[in-house]
Amino acid sequence: IYIDSSLFTVHCSLYNIVMDKFEFFSKFNDAVIIINDKKDVLYKNNAFKRRFTDFSELHKFSHQLNFNVCTLDGEDVEMYSPIYQALKSIQNFFAYVTYQNLQKETLYFNMVAIKRSRYMVIIFSDVTAENKLSVLEKEHEALSGKYKKLYSENQNFVKIKQKAQAQAIKMVLINKMSN
Question: pTM of the predicted model, to two decimals?
């Protein structure tokens, strides 16, 4: 097997130039993926690799993302994917998306796609914890309401029980006096 070392050096140099170009995004805590105009993935930061461990290719990944949209072009199935919607958009693109991983866990993200010349930078800000907190706060509020209602009813039953006991004592005393 013959390997042209000069070609390998050129390829590695180009790879390093591209990686250095996007290295800024390695500092982001949010997941970042960079795609060129040919729909090739050029860069994924470490946060992206950690969050989307089952990522293998853009097409499969796009099918795991979902968002509420009403497309006017029913013929183009790709338009139901936020990734392809962002790629086809002529402007920057913002969406609230859900992602279902292979473990069937649903995660929530604010997706921001920013176009820059031939590249699209897509940033996924994880809002799953905020959604779960909101759901838990609503559940807590509902349970607190039920607790207050049950506590109030219990207090009323305690008062009724005390009145019934007092009435029973009065009846016993009246029966003793009449005997």
Answer: 0.67
